[in-house]
Amino acid sequence: MNILAIETATPICSVALLSDRDVVSHQSESGNQVHIERLAIMLKNALELATTLKIQLDALAVSIGPGSFTGLRIGLATIKALGSILKLPLIPVPTLDAMALQYFENSPTGHIPDASIGLLFSHRDLVHSATFRGGSSEPTRGEYTFGSLD
Fold it and tell me: Is residue 142 over pLDDT 70?
């Protein structure tokens, strides 16, 4: 399956072109207003590469949070419009789930940990969090929480 994926829930804006879970291309940038200023350009670059490589997209994926409210609105509006134009299905991806899967697949210990906690900083010393359990091919998520680190 060939997927064009975007992530706008965090301070880093990224666009990836994937083919059967292999990353064909990846662009990411961070900074003030990067989502509104660079997302369209990054998508254009990825779509041009897909055309050059003759990659037929099957779906579009987008992070759905938790995360920056403004970043999420930019990402969701952009991918919904693109999906409508290209007539492609959208795949919603919870941000912490994607982060956990990346961690579990690239575990520094070389094996899948039994458990981990994903944290995503919000505002005013608050965090979004979720627990994840290993033991299978993909991590299993517990409930999301939002609160102080205290």
Answer: yes
Q: Which of 40-54, 61-75, 119-133 has the lowest mean pLDDT?
A: 119-133
Rg, the chain, Cα only = 16
Q: In the block, which residue shows the tokens 């938790």?
A: 66
pLDDT at 111: 64
The domains of the chain are located at 2-93, 95-148
Strands 22-30, 12-19: parallel, antiparallel or unpaired by DSSP?
antiparallel
Which residues touch 56 (CB under 8 Å, ≥6 apart)?
2, 50
Is 120 a residue whose pLDDT tops 90? no
Asked if 42 contacts 52 with a C-beta cutoff of 8 angstroms, the reply is no
Residue 32 near residue 58, CB atoms below 8 Å: no
Whether 37 has a pLDDT exceeding 80, the answer reads yes
Q: Positive or negative CA dihedral for 139, 102, 42, 20? A: negative
Options 3.30.420.40, 3.40.50.11290, 3.50.40.10, 3.30.559.30; CATH for 2-93 is 3.30.420.40
